[in-house]
């Protein structure tokens, strides 16, 4: 069942977080949200070695760092999120793991994050915190690129598109997007990209394969729409999924793109082959279900 009530908002006190707050504020008119601001302090050894901070200096640094984080968190985003009653939580540990665990344990319906984050050498080694949350979180994740450029007035969600790959999670993704668009009273479109069947010479192996793929895909999309109980226009292309989905969103001036991330966490994670590429290149914010 569709539910959007409890939102986890990780913050690192950067300008990207202020942009993400204006992104979240776009939901205010249509949803009654409980927002939890979370800042995660990495363990000191992830930033400094014991040789750098020995003995009493290590304990002084740890306490000063925690005190400063609490002070920063106390009033952060008060103006941007003035419509919400905010819960502020300070955690310590591996940021991605703590965020995923907190979202799961507190039954969060959405995690709101910038696409890029800080992390220096750790980010180079392990990937950004956002990528790891996308990989493991079992609730939808709301991301945006270049959030520092979001206008002060925020955005209005009037056009929503859902990219469907006809995988086993497509029904869930389509259902979520349909409910979300109805709540926002937004226009909804469906995007699908069929595989490319071009040979090495640039010719198709069978001249009408593109049409056959499109007909089969349209039939399955119509079955899904009937099952979900929705009706929406479909746009279809063949070839590069990432490029075509982002191009369609750009051409149509979409305010939000909904995509799937997969159906299982663990070793393989939830992020599908094309999902992160779409998230990074999308001209509009993305909710990954």
How would you describe what is shown here?
- The chain has 289 residues and is α/β, with parallel strands linked by helices.
- The chain folds into two domains: 144 residues, HUPs (Rossmann fold), CATH 3.40.50; 130 residues, Rossmann fold (3-Layer(aba) Sandwich).
- Helix content is 39%, strand content 19%.
- It has nine helices and ten strands.
- A ten-stranded mixed sheet has the order 3-2-1-4-5-10-9-6-7-8, with helices on both faces.
- The longest helix is centred in the first third of the chain and has 21 residues.
- The chain is elongated and about 75 Å long.
- About 6% of the residues have low confidence.
Summarize it.
The protein has about 290 residues and is α/β, with parallel strands linked by helices.
What is the alpha-carbon Rg in Å?
A: 21 Å
Show unreliable segments: 117-127, 265-269
* Number of H/I helices: 9
The average pLDDT value, as a whole number, equals: 84
Order of helices and strands: EHEHEHEHHEEHEHEHEHE
CATH domain class of the largest domain:
Alpha Beta
Helix content: 25-40%
Global outline: elongated
Q: Give the class from helix and strand content and strand pairing.
A: alpha/beta
Determine the CATH superfamily of the largest domain.
HUPs
Number of domains: 2
Please state roughly what percent of the residues sit in beta strands, choosing from under 5%, 5-15%, 15-25%, 25-35%, 35-45% or over 45%: 15-25%
């Amino acid at each position: 069942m569709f539910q959007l009530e409890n939102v986890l908002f990780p913050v690192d006190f950067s300008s990207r977080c202020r942009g993400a707050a204006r992104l979240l504020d776009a939901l205010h008119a249509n949803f009654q949200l409980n927002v939890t601001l979370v800042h995660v302090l990495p363990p000191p050894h992830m930033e400094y070695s014991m040789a750098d901070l020995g003995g009493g200096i290590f304990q002084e640094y740890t306490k000063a760092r925690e005190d400063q984080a609490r002070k920063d968190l106390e009033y952060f985003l008060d103006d941007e999120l003035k419509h919400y009653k905010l819960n502020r939580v300070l955690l310590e540990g591996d940021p991605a793991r703590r965020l995923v665990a907190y979202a799961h344990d507190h039954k969060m319906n959405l995690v709101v994050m910038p696409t890029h984050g800080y992390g220096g050498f750790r980010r180079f080694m392990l990937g950004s915190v956002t990528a790891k949350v996308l990989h493991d979180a079992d609730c939808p994740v709301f991301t945006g690129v270049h959030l520092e450029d979001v206008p002060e007035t925020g955005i209005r969600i009037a056009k929503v598109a859902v990219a469907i790959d006809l995988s086993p999670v497509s029904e869930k993704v389509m259902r979520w997007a349909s409910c979300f668009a109805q709540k926002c009273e937004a226009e909804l479109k469906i995007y699908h990209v069929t595989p490319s069947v071009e040979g090495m010479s640039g010719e198709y192996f069978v001249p009408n394969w593109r049409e056959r793929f499109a007909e089969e895909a349209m039939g399955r999309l119509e079955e899904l729409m009937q099952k979900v109980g929705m009706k929406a226009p479909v746009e279809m292309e063949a070839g590069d999924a990432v490029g075509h989905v982002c191009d369609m969103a750009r051409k149509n001036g979409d305010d939000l793109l909904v995509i799937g991330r997969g159906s299982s966490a663990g070793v393989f994670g939830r992020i599908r082959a094309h999902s992160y590429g779409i998230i990074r290149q999308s001209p509009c914010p993305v909710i990954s279900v």
